[in-house]
Every structure is written in C-alpha cells, then in structure tokens.
Amino acid sequence: MKNIYSNILKVNNRVLSKIINSLKKKELVGVPTETVYGLAGNAYSSKSVKKIYHLKKRPYKNPLIIHYYNLKYLKNDVEFNKNFFKLYKKFSPGPITFILKRKKKSQLSNIATAKLKTVAVRFPKNKVLRKILKSLNFPLAIPSANKSTRISPVSAEDVAQEFKSSLKIIVNGGPCKIGLESTVVDLTSKPKILRPGLIGPTTISKALNKKIKINQSSKIIKAPGMLKRHYSPGIPMRLNQKKAKKQEAFVVFGKKFKKGKNIFNLSYKSSLNEAAKNLYKTLRLIKNKKYKIICVCSIPKTGIGLAINDRLAKAAK
Ligand code: TXA
Ligand code: MG
User: Fold this and answer.
1) Closest Cα partner for 3 from 137, 170, 201?
2) Which of 3, 16, 89, 144 sits a CA distance of 20 to 30 A from 83?
3) CA 219/CA 146 separation, integer angstroms
C-alpha cells in the first residue's frame, strides 16, 4: 500500500536518532508494539505526559502504562516482589503489564500514574521499541495510540488516521503481531487479572503456582480500562448473534458462515489468535465503510477468546 501519510517513517539509523531526539525534547512519537500501536512520551516529564492526555482526550484519572527496557531501568521506580520475579522471568519482554507499588523516590510523573501509589509497568517485545528504550535514560509512558474510548490502532496508518498531522512521527513497524492490548496483572496483593489478554489465567496460574482470578466485579476498580464504554467503534453493536440483516455488518468466526459483502470473517480456520489480530482492524474497516450497526457472532471463550469477548463487551456498551 502506498504511504499517503508523510509522518509515517520506516526506521533506519537517521530516523532512530530523530525519534530519540524528539522524545528527549518531550515530544510524542507513535510507536509499534507487539500488542497495539502506542503513543509514547517521557514518563519522568509531566510536560510530556500532559501532551499524551491532551492528544488522546484521556481523563486524568486513568493512569498510563510505563514501558521499560529491563529490570535495571525499573529499580528506582517500584518495589519488586516474588510474584513479579516469577512472571517477569517467564513472560518479559512480552504482552503483560504488572501493577506494582511505587517507590517514594521515583521520578515518575504523578500525572502519568494518576497520583496512585501503584505503577503499571511493561517490557514490550517489539525490537525497534526496545532499541529506543535502551538508548534513553527515562522510561516511556505509552497508552494505546487512539482517542480515548475508541478502537486501538494495529497499524501505523491507523495511528495516522487517529491523530492526523498533530503527531509528527509515527514509527512504521508493520501490523501488530497480537492485535489486542497486554494482560494487566495486579501484583500489589493477592494476584488478580485486571484486563485479560493473550497470556491467560491458566498460563499465569501455572507460573505463579497458584490460582488467579479475573477481577470482574470489584468495587474498587483498579483499571479504569475495565470500566464502561471502551474500544468502541462508535456504532451500535449486537453481540452473540446468529444472523444479521443485509444492511448490517456481520462479524463472524469460522467457515460455517457464508461469504458476502457485509460478512467480515475474523478467522475462516477458527483460529482465536488470528481473530484477535483481525478484530480491531475489522471494526475500523466497518466503521470506515459507514455501516450503521455491527452484529457479531458468538466467539469461544477459551484462550485469547476471553480477551476478545472482554473487548467486544466493552465496545458494545
Ligand atoms: O498492550 C498494551 O498494554 C498497550 C501497548 C501500547 O503497550 N498499552 C495500553 O495502554 O493498552 P492503555 O493506556 O490503553 O491501557 C492501560 C490500562 C488502562 O486500563 C489503565 O487503567 C490501566 O492500564 N492502569 C494503568 N495504571 C494502573 C494502575 N496503577 N493500576 C491499575 N490499572 C492501571
Ligand atoms: Mg487503550
């Protein structure tokens, strides 16, 4: 596809130093990760972090995930614990975010962490992003690169569509491998999953050697991402449908569904991983095609299917 956006850049050494300079100057950069594309800024700088909230129109009470290169870069900001070491060793770098207690001496912007005593930390796997993180002496606050409550971007073009020319640099890393946001695990007390993702409860339970629950109806809502409308295409959605009307977009899964102009199959071969990768891309396409209603068939609730169902339920609210 022809690149019609002049702010989408392919990485080479010159572009890499441009990106690093921009981040040092407290500017924002669109970056690829293995999950979804993100909007990156200096997590130690409130000036930089404010730009993120402003551009995304994100409420200040919703904290950001802080992205690091490795443990060494993190030790001044948070308290480590045994469960964290177990999961870090097994899954990082990778699509998992840990909630840990913040250290008093941490230099993290209070705005980035919404004045909480905890911090969400993640070690992304994308090679370009890791190169960037390694060459900076500050971590990056990186939310998904979409306007608040909208669908997360899974390609550089999606990011350009969200922010137009208000974002000067978007790093082109191709389509995201996973296509859904990281699993968020609270490790500040008894481990809980706050947001499901590719790394599921069974895998995490095994690594911790104890059962872990998905926190669904907690009164103290720790991840505002668990709340209300989110990941929304901005069109009414009906879930778990067997049929759709002609003028509706029908999102389906598996080969038992016929082909058709208004049929969008997330995975003919019934692969949940493929469906996860296609979900946001498909919802964005349907929105761009100006459909007024989206119907979705039922999607199995196993593996990453749990996360797909979680995002669909929030998108439909
Ligand atoms: O895969 C991902 O995690 C992507 C990529 C770009 O890294 N990032 C991402 O960020 O999804 P964002 O901002 O769209 O979602 C962050 C989620 C929100 O639901 C937020 O409420 C939660 O993490 N969060 C952040 N800090 C938290 C904290 N201290 N306690 C509980 N939840 C927290
Ligand atoms: Mg998001």
Assistant:
1) 170
2) 144
3) 27
Element (H, E) at 287: helix 272-288
* pLDDT tens sequence across 193-213: 999 999 999 999 999 999 998
Q: How far apart are CA 252 and CA 99, in angstroms?
A: 34
For the CA of 222, the closest atom of ligand 1 is 31
Atom 15 of ligand 1, nearest CA residue: 143
| Helices within 26-114 (DSSP H only) | 46-56, 71-74, 82-91
Residue type, 190: K
Strands across the sheet containing 249-252? 237-238, 294-296, 249-252, 263-265
| Residue 153 alpha carbon to ligand 2 centre in Å | 9
- Dump pLDDT digits (tens) for 277-314: 999 999 999 999 999 999 999 999 999 999 999 999 99
Decide: 148 and 163 in contact? Cβ < 8 Å. Answer: no
Distance 80 CA to ligand 1 centre (A): 19
How far apart are the C-alpha atoms of 140 and 30, rounded to whole Å? 12
H or E segment at 213?
strand 213-214
* Cα angle value 13/160/291 (rounded, 5°): 150
Answer whether 17's CB lies under 8 Å from 180's CB: no
Q: Would you state the structure tokens that stand for residue 286, as one six-digit string?
A: 């349907």
Q: Which residues line ligand 1 (CB under 6 A)?
A: 33, 35-36, 38, 62-65, 97, 99, 116, 118-120, 122, 124, 142-144, 181-182, 184, 194-195, 222-225
